[in-house]
Amino acid sequence: MNSRAGGIAARREALQRRCAVQREQLTASINALESRLSDVDRATLVVRKLRLAPILLAVITTAAAATPLFRNISRGLTIVNALGQLLRFRRLGAPVVQRDRESKHPRQLP
Question: What's the pLDDT band for 13 if we cut at 50, 70, 90?
Answer without folding.
Answer: very high
